[in-house]
Write a structure and sequence with these properties.
244 residues, 2 domains
Length: 244
């Protein structure tokens, strides 16, 4: 998980000290009848992995910074984390009242799960989950994210390993930062990349029968091109690599 930068306010106070307050976050939820996960996180980092078919297991840390222990504890106390069920959806919410507070959350759940994840100020990492996914965060990383997906990185780019379903599609949109997309070789892709001409673009051959490229643009087709892969990158480089 990426290291969190020291808050700017504490960096200014480093000579006189800056306190940190933490408490553990723990929750469980039955997976019976649950087919999707909705998550909305104000500030922090969220990891979701499909390693617990019997239920959801949430672990993590709620933290706050301040000029002294009292202020740090106050900032941490403004964090609220909740995991509950809403019909067929598991719902994870985390709100932070204070700017110098955040959470780091790790959620294990079923491997078959539709994801709707939004982290307003932080990152999302997803591992071994199959379904229909919509994810928005500053930065997105994934390993074996399968199915159909729409991923939007707002400031930190992406490094995603995705396995689209035969009837799925892949849409990536990065507003800033480098993007690495990893796909399995030889699947029937129809790839179009609209990149930033000011940055490099590296494309590995995934079995393309036909390609077209120019600065800031690439398109290529494998087989019948039945799996659309659409990528938009602004303010960063792009790499298309074969999955490991």
């Amino acid at each position: 998980m990426p290291r969190r930068r020291l808050p700017a306010a504490c960096a200014l106070l480093v000579l006189v000290g800056c306190a940190r307050s933490e408490r553990p976050v723990d929750a469980t939820l039955s997976a019976d009848g649950i087919t999707s996960l909705r998550a909305l996180v104000d500030r922090g980092d969220l990891t979701v992995h499909g390693t617990s078919d019997t239920g959801f297991v949430l672990q993590g840390t709620s933290a706050g910074m301040g000029r002294n222990e009292t202020r740090a504890a106050l900032h941490e106390s403004g964090n609220r984390v909740d995991l509950s069920a809403d019909g067929a959806a598991a719902v994870l919410t985390s709100t932070s009242v204070y700017r110098r507070a955040w959470v780091t959350l790790d959620l294990a759940g079923p491997a078959q799960l539709d994801l709707d994840l939004q982290v307003d100020r932080g990152s999302v990492d997803v591992e071994q989950v199959e379904g229909t996914h919509t994810i928005t965060a500053d930065r997105i990383t994934s390993v074996q994210l399968a199915g159909s997906m729409d991923l939007h990185a707002t400031s930190g780019g992406m490094d995603v390993d995705v396995w689209p379903a035969d009837d799925g599609q892949v849409q990536l949109d990065s507003s800033a930062g480098d993007v690495v997309l990893r796909l399995a070789w030889g699947r029937p892709y129809d790839v179009e990349v609209i990149g930033d001409p000011a940055y490099d673009m590296q494309i590995e051959d995934l079995g393309f029968q036909g390609t077209f490229s120019e600065p800031g643009y690439f398109s290529g087709t494998v087989g019948d091109g039945s799996i659309p892969v659409s990528v938009y990158v602004n303010g960063g480089s792009f790499e298309l690599l074969e999955s490991l």
